[in-house]
Amino acid sequence: MALIPSQILRVAILLSYFSIICNYKAIDMPAHQTYGGSWKFLTFIDLVIQAVFFGVCVLTDLSSLLTKGTASVEQERQLRKLIGLRDWMMAVLAFPVGVLTAVLLTEGIYSSKKVPDKSSMFVVTMFWTLYLYDRDLVYPRLLDNFIPQWLNHGMHTTVLPFIIIEMRTTHHQYPSRLCGLLAVCSFAVGYVLWMCWVHNVTGVWVYPLLEHIGSTARVFFFICLTGLISLYYVLGEILNSYIWDSSRSKYMCLRA
Asked: Is the dihedral of CA 98, 99, 105, 110 positive or negative?
């Protein structure tokens, strides 16, 4: 038996995300006053995704509790829909986008004169290489005046353990790999188009690194974004199967 029921964990995680989002929005940063506001940044988009996802999880738990012991076919049908939505969000959005954001490590701002933002390279080695070469490309010192360390960790460090806890405590039914990859690639392409639109309107790239590379390198960057988030989707599918196949095997051994 778990020390803390999974339902209580989900409520606590949901409240923590609400707190992080409220504290982040309360920061008076220049980026919040420009076109696209906080929605330009993948970190903020991910925070909203995680909050909505855990909100659906809590709603599913409440619905399951309310329908327990009842024979209503309609209530059971609505509960199955909620469970399907929860599992789909976990597979396509919460895990791959959450892991991607956790890897990115940093958050940023930009103004009309300078465009500090978070690292847009998708592997830690690249991040630290660029950090050592020129910190302002990936984590400008100016950010230290806006984002406290605890909030930075709340936006990035806690995302991964929270989503792993959810995967470990609840079995999620993944869609077919083709449908899942199509959905996660659609998200990646949508975000790439959003970045391009922001650049078209403002004349400035959301990620400063894109200002320093050519068109061919940008295309390669966008392909890497789509490929990496697809890789994280497959990783989540494999991890989910491994966790629950192992649990099922242990259960069968105990019964035998």
From this structure: negative
Look at the block and give the residue holding tokens 């990035």: 156
Q: Phi and psi dihedrals of 187, rounded to 5?
A: -60, -45
What tens digit of pLDDT does each residue of 245-254 get? 765 555 445 4
Hunting for tokens 């930075």 — which residue is that?
152
Task: Write out the DSSP string of the chain.
Answer: --SS-HHHHHHHHHHHHHHHHHHHHHS--GGGGSTTGGGGSHHHHHHHHHHHHHHHHHHHHHHHHHHTT---HHHHHHHHHHHHHHHHHIIIIIHHHHHHHHHH-------SS--------SSHHHHHHHHHH-GGGTS-GGGGGTS-HHHHHHHHTTHHHHHHHHHHHS------HHHHHHHHHHHHHHHHHHHHHHHHHHSS-SSGGGGGS-HHHHHHHHHHHHHHHHHHHHHHHHHHHHHHHHHHHHHHHHH-
Q: Do residues 206 and 41 lie in contact, with contact meaning Cβ atoms separated by under 8 Å?
A: yes
Which tokens is 247 given? 């649990």
Exposure pattern of 173-211 as b/e (b: 16+ CB <10 Å)?
Answer: ebbeeeebbebbbebbeebbebbeebbeebebbbbbbbe
**Tokens representing 112?**
């009309």
CB 118 within 8 A of CB 139: yes
Q: With 0-12 CB in 10 A as exposed, 13-18 as middle and 19+ as buried, what is 7? A: middle
pLDDT tens readout for residues 85-132? 999 999 999 999 988 877 654 433 333 333 333 333 333 444 555 556
